[in-house]
Amino acid sequence: MPELVWLGGHRGLEQAIVPPAGIPLTRLLLRSLRSAARDVHLVLDPIRLGLSVPQALILLVIRRPAAIFTTGGYVAIPTLLAAQVLRIPSVLWEGNVVPGRSVRFVAKRASVLAVTFPETAEALPHDRTLVTGTPIRALDADPDEARARFGGRPGERILLVFGGSQAVRRINAAVLGALPRLTERVRVIHVTGDDGYAAACIARDALPPELRDRYRPFPFLHEDMTAALAAADLAVGRAGSSTLAEAAAFALPMAIVPYPHAAGHQRRNAEAYAASGAALVVEDADFDADRLVEVAGLLADPSAHARMSAAARDAARAHAADAVAELVMAVATRSSLPSQASVDAIARGGGR
């Protein structure tokens, strides 16, 4: 069993997540370069980044890892610069069609690039790029048990709506505006976020008594999100790489409402995924109650729904984590990299 050590920064959820998972965490001095306010961090963040390079170099000399795996972010800059100096092999994974600034800066310093979308390879020229898909958690929920958990009855269609952590307000407003019409047709699982949960509960209580049980709002679902994906017949959500990968793993058709900011990364993800036929794209500015009801109408069209579900199944790379691990182990042992055909087979669950 390989020994794992996590190298992070001083911003984000790592401190709360990594040590409880049993993985040692070491943090570099850097925070990020995303300070929007005109404050002292505009000066301190670049200084912290610069000081993190020798810090990473010292840490890697001490630990001397067999390989480094990174998903980019600002921690990747000092880490891969130090790894290049010490000739430590590395695998960089990028899940967006449009790579971020830090990924573009360090891509050529990685030994191997792993990407979710083939289009990403065009933006990150590298002589060793492999399409792996997006690593996701194990998704082993039983659909029938999942549907029962959310109150689904035989033959009842289930719509799952969630907005992630960014700009969920527009999605929540669309659900509440469409709620009476939706619950007459389908059962709705709605992940509201903390800020939207109280309003959702009020809207549920305002429904006719016979429809209230058909609307299930939750502030968050956490581990139960897997069950929600397994239970649903259609999902409405943003275009994060993990969201698309998990929906595909359940052959779940999607209506994607891309987050409109962050340099348009989600829009490009949505377009690339929708090109497979597994999803349709609705612009954030166009998403309202009427559009949501229209989208939910897909559940009344069995042939269209079946086509999208089959396309999602074809797009799925549910074992992408195994494919990425294969690349990491290959560079760690200085072995030959698997072919793209082999990576495809692993990511789809067929082995080497």
Protein described:
The structure is a single chain. Helix 14 packs across helix 15. This protein has two domains: 159 residues, Glycogen Phosphorylase B (Rossmann fold), CATH 3.40.50; 173 residues, Glycogen Phosphorylase B (Rossmann fold, 3-Layer(aba) Sandwich). By secondary structure, it is an alpha/beta fold. It starts with 5 loop residues before the first strand and ends in a 5-residue tail after the last helix. The protein is built from 15 helices and twelve strands. The model has no long low-confidence stretch (mean pLDDT 92).
Structural class determined from secondary elements: alpha/beta
Q: What is the average of the pLDDT values?
A: 92
Strand order of the largest sheet: 9-8-7-10-11-12
CATH architecture of the largest domain: 3-Layer(aba) Sandwich
Termini gap: 20 Å
Give the tags.
352 residues; alpha/beta; Rossmann fold; 2 domains; four-stranded parallel beta sheet; 12 strands
Please outline what is shown here.
The chain is built from 15 helices and 12 strands. It has 352 residues and is of the alpha/beta class. It has a 6-stranded parallel beta sheet, sandwiched between helices. It has a 4-stranded parallel beta sheet with strand order 3-4-5-6, with helices on both faces.
